[in-house]
Amino acid sequence: MMPLPGSDQARHRPPQQDTRIAPPEEPPRERPAGPERRPEGRRKRRWSFGRIAGSLAMVIVLLLAGVWLYLEFSINRIDAIQDYDGRPAAGAGTNWLIVGSDSREGLDQDQKDALATGDAGGNRTDTMMIAHLPDNDTKPTLLSLPRDSVVEIPGHGSGKINSAFAIGGAPLLAKTVEQATDLRIDHYAEIGFGGFAGMVDAMGGVEMDIAEKMHDPKTGITIPAGRQELDGSQALGFVRMRYSPATPRSDLDRVVNQRRFIGEMVSQMASPGTLLNPFAVVPLLAEAPDALTMDDEDHLHHLVALAWAMRGISDGGVVSTTMPTTSASAEQWDEARSTALLDALRNDDPVPENAIVE
């Protein structure tokens, strides 16, 4: 008989044991094999293509900035362009006087022999050009001044224009050119024998199409006909040659060849194959400080603007001409045509067709 709830027997009944069976305990789970999980905030960084490209671009920018500063402060500078009473007023556009001198400074005898420079004393100018960069959309002009042109040399009477450099260096030459042309010269660039050849070699040569075999009996340099790459020695021989049967007009043919070569050289310098190739552009830039002399007011960005404007010589984007003369000797300028040419440059007008001379 079971005790009634609330009775004394029910209150003193011993507690009954729980006879339910507990489920078996599960063994601890094992972590799968693999690298340990990093604490939050220490995840391994992954470099994306964009981040790598950005870093490379920054390195290139810093490298170019370093090269730019090196060239800016390393190029030779002289006081070439000076003020004086009666100097021509500034006209439209910008005018460069570009000079190729026969300076042998810095060349040892072996280098002189290799370049066939000879041993002439003093410094003269084998090349004199005015590069006119217009302010408007008129084509730039590259004008050769024949070295035998007879002009007034300030303070020294009448003489051949290239003798001004031998008498008074760059300042007297710049003043002579200004007085003879009535054009104000804004910038000056000069390159000597060794520097010219060095820059050509640094580029790996300049490709030219030579119409006929050229041989200079004075220097002994021979350039075969056909398309070829001229090295520094051959290039120097090409731009100096005037005694070859291939240059019957002597200096007049030589200045045409000089402009042709400059056109091809600048065009190849500005090509992606040169600018994007460190094995080509670095040696070229390394040669520049020893090769070039500029006015002390000129800067690297002026030179870059000149090169960029002249890159169209070889494809007709630049008017390439010689100062009109009255004879094959190139001693006297044709007054009417030379005046029309110089007036056009002074006013940024197109050069008249009858003033363009090959």
Automatic annotation (TrEMBL):
Pfam families: LytR_cpsA_psr. The keyword Lyase does not apply. The chain crosses the membrane at residues 52-71. Residues 124-270 form the Cell envelope-related transcriptional attenuator domain. Gene3D superfamilies: LCP protein. It comes from the Bacteria. The keyword Transmembrane applies. InterPro entries: LytR/CpsA/Psr_CW_biosynth (IPR050922), LytR_CpsA_psr (IPR004474). Residues 26-39 have a biased composition (Basic and acidic residues). Residues 1-44 are annotated as: Disordered. Keywords: Membrane, Transmembrane, Transmembrane helix. NCBIfam families: lytR_cpsA_psr. Belongs to the LytR/CpsA/Psr (LCP) family. PANTHER family: POLYISOPRENYL-TEICHOIC ACID--PEPTIDOGLYCAN TEICHOIC ACID TRANSFERASE TAGU (PTHR33392:SF6). This is LCP family protein. It comes from Prauserella alba. The lineage of its organism: Bacteria, Bacillati, Actinomycetota, Actinomycetes, Pseudonocardiales.
